[in-house]
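Journal club prep, notes for RB
We'll compare a predicted complex against what the paper describes. Inputs for the pyridoxal-5'-phosphate case:
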Amino acid sequence: MAEFPQVRINLDYLEENVRTVVSRCAERGVSVAGVVKGATGLAECIECFAEGGATQIASSRLEQLETAKRLNTGLPLMLIRIPMISEAAEAVRLADISLNSEITVLRELDRQAGIAGRNHGVILMADLGDLREGFWNRDELIDAAVEVETGLHNLELKGVGTNLGCYGAIQPTVEKLEELVSIAHQVEDKIGRKLEIISGGASSSYMRILDGNLPEGINHLRIGEQILNAYDLEKYYGYDLSDMHPDVFTLRAEVVEVKTKPTHPVGEVGVDAFGRKRVYEDRGIRRRAIVAVGKADIGDSDNIIPRDEGIEVIGGSSDHTILDVEDAKRDIKPGDILEFNVNYGGMLYLTGSASVKIRFDKTGK
Ligand SMILES: *Cc1c(COP(=O)(O)O)cnc(C)c1O
């Protein structure tokens, strides 16, 4: 098979990014679960998280935790999507800790842990407004905590956590995180002991580390994106990430057509390949190129950003991405390989696509 489309992953950069985030968090007394789902749990990437100092390896997908288990990193494995009841047995076999928000799921985890003769750690999630997972009602969370502590003997209540900045785009402000700490204290009062983990969110909570205003008590974050794709906090919130590598991932794709064509489609406009009505800007006649990679590999055409100055992604379909190369600084022709930065969505699709060749760069220093 052809070498393209190809995604290159620089493992030295990745491991350095892990080290940077882990050490900055450690300065604030915070440990880091390395979240590997953004890179589809590739074994080589999991190893970088382990080598770089993550405290746990985390994923939303059990098959990725299975890869991690096979690698014998010695680190606890954390399931960060609420377990499906149908995967409870697998969850207690593969994960040492899971995030939870349903008492029925907790009871099934307890039952399965009993059958397997294992102990399974749980973190109860509080929804602080982002409206994805988590207990909305505080009393319900506390009741669940008490039941785990006193009635579900194969489970160990490790702590509480929250998720922000995902569905609802709610920012991990100091106030939100203080609310989590107060929930933790309420649980601690009820069960009469300290909780081991207060998990204050994902990459977006790293802003509180950079600002130095993470509330006292938060001692754990679950971080993927900020390590794998270290530029979103800079791009969207203006943080200085110059101590990190933004370019762990590089997509390399081959040009299959270069022609001068109109920029506005010619004929009666209906819906595109995905049933969407689109607006096409008429920029006159321009030089454009097609690279052999498409939405099946990258999710959306906007998920890749050409590294060449003067080249712009203008759209695509399942297997094609169309570029405007009119202002390219060099002559582009069929057979040329173009390089792209990829954002989180692009990285997620590329590392999971069966048509994409994954190649690793490692200097081994
Ligand atoms: C995906 C996920 C994370 C990690 O998110 P990043 O933005 O990649 O850091 C943390 N916690 C939960 C529950 C998640 O689903």
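Talking point for the session: The pocket of pyridoxal-5'-phosphate is lined by residues 35, 37-38, 60, 80, 99, 163, 202-203, 222-226 (CB under 6 Å).
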